[in-house]
Amino acid sequence: MSKQTSVVSRNYLLDAINSMSPPRASQPYSRSHPPLSIQVVVNMIRLFLILPFASLSCALPGLSWIQLSNGFMEQRIKQAFRARQGPVAIVDGLTQIPDADHPFMAPEPTDQRGPCPGLNVLANHGYLPHSGIVTQADVVSAVSEGFNMGADLSELLSVLAVAQDGDLITGKFSIGGPDSRAALLGSLQNILGVESSLYHRSNGVEADASATRDDAYSGDDHTMIPGLYAQMKSIAANYGGLYTLEAMKDVQQLRHQQSVQTNPTFHFVPITGVLVIGAKAFISEFFSNGTYGDGGVPNEESISSFFGAQLLPNGSYEFIPERFPDNWYRRGTPFGLVNAIDEILDFYLTRDIGFGANAGAVNSFVPLDLGAITNVNSLAASFRTHCRPTSRARYSSRLKSSSRSIRRWST
Ligand code: HEM
After folding, report:
1. Mean pLDDT value of segment 383-395
2. More confident residue, 395 or 51
3. 3-state SS record for the chain
4. Of the ranges 60-64, 185-189, 201-205, 357-361, the best mean pLDDT one
5. For ligand 1, atom 28: residue with the closest CA
6. Ligand 1 within 6 A of 147 CB?
7. With 90 as the cut, is the pLDDT of residue 44 above it?
8. Is there an atom of ligand 1 within 6 Å of 159 CB?
9. Could you list the residue ranges that cross the membrane (predicted)?
10. Is residue 116 in contact with ligand 1, taking CB distance under 6 Å?
11. Span 178-190, mean pLDDT?
């Protein structure tokens, strides 16, 4: 597949995506998709809506979302400033992780674990609540203490997780599957159909083409797949067994190609696609052992422990709960938002991993026409055509199916 050499017209793109066959009903995590351009725009609008909350909560990490949205009463803001000393860990160069207060404890059946090995390992060592039901402040504090992730990056990720996959009232989300403990109304919340998990059941932050997780189309998008882990390892072998950024770029490109070839509903769009790319860079940046220098390059020993990949005598792998490797030191300098954007751009520009989607069949990848998306007139036309079915819809089966897909998406 060449890098977006033939960007198709907006109308063709919309038609192609709307004519997708619906996802397989038997798959619990599969979903229907709106037209690509509308998805991207809706994601952008969501991001703009939540960014003010992100910056506020970054400045005032002691506040929950409900407190932030409650009118910023003076008393609460003062409390938040006092609480500010608490949740964010102070980063002071190389520190051995875990410390004596955070021994490994395997998750119990009721504990939530999910698609993110970083959050899973923090919960297994008690840097995050062992239950896997977390708040934004929990996450910002834990990723800083455990991995030296910059607060700007962790705020953005956790705000996205709360906004897309969490409970806006409690500010909580489950790092695994849907869980009533994350919701204000507990199990009654299910009546409202609100999700609070990182599983790919809605338009959340989990997405296709992950390194060691399958696409949602397969039915399980969150469990480490030993075969995918072995594939990643074989790519690292081309780089001396080191999980360098170049190796991770190759992993991203291969996973993108595999999704195009095997997943008829493959979607790789901003913002979720950007996060998936970023997660590959995290493998090199955060799972390295700090004793190599300012982060160093991770090797098989640390990577296998972080991904919970246990080598069996027959050469294959099985999954065991993720844990920090022995004698491991977190990276010496924080890795923040600017670093992440820089590396994501580098991935995107140096590999064949264009945004777009399969149009309902394998190998039917339609590149996303970013020009059409940023054209205000085209956008208005898309919304008119797809969001407000006209009388023509009664006479055109194509238009009927198009508006059905919009209704499915918006319910
Ligand atoms: C700060 C809050 C964080 C949130 C909300 C978050 C969320 C997620 C989600 C939803 C995914 C699945 C993405 C996909 O579909 O590929 C993911 C993947 C991943 N995350 Fe995180 N994450 C966070 C922090 C971290 C940290 C601190 C690390 C590393 C120390 C990390 C490492 C990874 C890796 C390596 C993957 C890719 C797994 C794979 O592709 O097999 N994440 N994360």
Report:
1. 36
2. 51
3. CCCCCCCCCHHHHHHHHHCCCCCCCCCCCCCCCCCHHHHHHHHHHHHHHHHHHHHHHHHCCCCCHHHHCCCCCHHHHHHHHHHCCCCCCCCCCCCECCCCCCCCCCCCCCCCCCCCHHHHHHHHCCCCCCCCEEEHHHHHHHHHHHHCECHHHHHHHHHHHHHHHCECCCCEEECCCCCHHHCCCHHHHHHHCCCCECCCCCCCCCCCCCCCCCCHHHCCCCCCCHHHHHHHHHHHHCCCCECCHHHHHHHHHHHHHHHHHHCCCCEECCCHHHHHHHHHHHHHHHCCCHHHCCCCCCEHHHHHHHHCEEECCCCCEEECCCCCCCCCECCCCCECHHHHHHHHHHHHHHCCCCCEEECCCCCCEEECCHHHHCCHHHHHHHHHHHHCCCHHHHCCHHHHHHHHHHHHHHC
4. 357-361
5. 118
6. yes
7. no
8. no
9. 44-66
10. yes
11. 70
pTM of the model: 0.74
Calculate mean pLDDT across residues 54-83. Answer: 42
- Tell me the two tokens of residue 14: 């919309």
Q: Identify the residue whose C-alpha is closest to ligand 1 atom 37.
A: 279
Ligand 1 centre to CA of 217 (Å) is 19
The response to whether residue 158 sits with its C-beta less than 6 Å from ligand 1 reads yes
Q: Which atom of ligand 1 is nearest to the CA of 221?
A: 15
